[in-house]
Write a structure and sequence with these properties.
Strand order of the largest sheet: 1-2
Number of strands: 2
Number of helices: 7
Distance between the termini: 108 Å
Order of helices and strands: EEHHHHHHH
Shape: elongated
Length: 255
Amino acid sequence: MSQYPSPYTPPPTQNYGGYDFNYYQPVQDPLAPAKKASIMLYVLGALVLLPSACCGVVGLMVPAMIAQQPAAFSELSASGMSPEVAQTVLIAGGVVGLLIAIVMIVLGRFVRRGTVAPAVTAIILVGLIGLYLLINAVGLLVMKMPPAQVVMGMAVTILGLVLIGLLILWLIQAVMAAPRVAQMTNQYQQQMWQYQQQQQMYQQAYAAQRQQQFQQQPPPMPGTAPGQLPPGPPPVPPPAPPNSGSPGDPNAPSA
């Protein structure tokens, strides 16, 4: 390795009265938290959509399942829940899950823009889902269920809580970055307005220049069409041949 410093090393930055003039820092995108939160909303919406659709389909198939396997629902009836109630619960759960999934997917599109209202709405919705998962986890611990089911239910619940916590963190960052996004949007709109004004000025100046050049052109001569050049002077005739009988001509025949 060479002991000499690299000539491409950036100069050290100094703090001048609270201002940082480090031009080598990468520019951070204020929309980055909103974009990550939007992707997470899409993912969670899809994860909620599939089980909800399956739950609704199973609820609609309960009468057919009872007709085919009546013994499978005998234990359910012995626990105090009729097949009609189970069917209603499954269909209602599927419909509610589908609505939540659709709302999450729609919010993901609006959260990506970096505005405050969709992000706050998503925080409230996701917070309610997280609260439901916590209540579900407590129910798994309290109810007497087989250990395998408890472990599987707790694993799914913990995974959902981790994803929801990460999503809430990104949504809060998106809300905090919303003023910068609004400022950036206003600057972009002002630049576009200035660009349009400059284009209009250039077009008006070009049109005025063309009109002035057209007015400064001389009027066409009689007999010529507009824009046609006038006829030029006639060509000069060639000189006449020398007289063979002129005195002093060496080429003249001798007498």
